[in-house]
Structure formats: C-alpha cells, structure tokens
C-alpha cells in the first residue's frame, strides 16, 4: 500500500532534546480512562498510539526508561526525556520492548490521531462525554473485535 509506505509523523518532548519519527501508521490509538493513566498524566485520560518499536525511530536524544508500577503488577517502562522529563512513550508487559505506546500529545500533529477505542471507561471522569458511536469498553477489550485486519497481521508478525 503506497499510503502506508509514505506515512510519517514526528514528535518529541517539550525541550526538544528528544525527537522521534513514526515510519508507519499506529496499529491503534487507545484513549485510556483508567485511574493509573489519570494519575500518571495528571489528567482525565491518556492517548496512546501503539506502534512496533522498529517503526519508531529516534532522531535526537536518548530517552531514559523509568520503571513505573502498573495495574497488571508487571510494571511499565516509561521513556522520558532525560532533561525535561516529559514522557514520550511506554513499553508495557506483554509485547514488552517490541511495542511502543507513544503519547499522542507529544506528536507534532496530534490531531491526526484521534482515539480508535476508549478503554477502562468504568473510571472515566463523568464530565468526559464520549462522541456518539465511539467504541468503548468498561475495562480492556478483545483486539480481534477492534483492530483492523492489517493491524492484527502486523501484531502477529511481531509475535513471530
Ligand atoms: Zn526534553
Ligand atoms: Zn490506563
């Protein structure tokens, strides 16, 4: 697919020491309303664009991986700029370092990446009103029901 081959998106931290580029479309964009994401962002939810780490190229800087507790108990590793400490992406247990959860707000054009699915809406802040027809789940969700065939194939390729 030509469109996929030409896809690119860049982002980085606030002090611009860390810059990165996505060389392909995200597999999916999560809007997570869980308490953990609320606390870690200091906000109502987090927006994460999932992409294979091999398609996330570091252009400048060297993020520091900070081990952070997670709801699963297995922890997540949050990549932060060593200078301004802004979180640019995370690796969770499961696919680990093979998959990166890029913080959509750190992309230069975050408007290009609206959420595909809202998760953990059981703890959604009540003033956050989801758009009509938005896919949402009270907790996590079965990928097979939500991900595109292309994204499922890409994930399968990661799993080997
Ligand atoms: Zn920075
Ligand atoms: Zn969450």
Care to describe what's here?
The protein is an alpha+beta fold. Helix content is 17%, strand content 31%. The protein is built from four helices and ten strands. It has helices at residues 2-6, 35-41, 143-146, 149-159, and strands spanning 9-12, 19-22, 28-32, 46-52, 56-60, 64-68, 76-80, 87-92, 99-103, 117-119. A seven-stranded mixed sheet has the order 6-7-8-9-4-3-10. Strands 1-2-5 form a three-stranded antiparallel sheet, with no helix packed on it. A hairpin with a 6-residue loop joins β1 and β2 (19-22). The radius of gyration is 15 Å and the shape is globular. The two termini are 22 Å apart. 30% of the residues are buried. One zinc ion binds at residues 32, 34, 36-37, 46, 120. One zinc ion (ZN) binds next to α2.
Strand content: 25-35%
The best one-word shape is: globular
> What do the pLDDT scores average to?
95
Unreliable stretches (pLDDT < 50, length at least 5) are none
Give the fraction of residues assigned to helices: 10-25%
Strand order of the largest sheet: 6-7-8-9-4-3-10
Q: Report on the biggest sheet.
A: 7 strands, mixed
User: Cofactors and ligands present?
Assistant: zinc ion
- Cα radius of gyration in angstroms: 15 Å
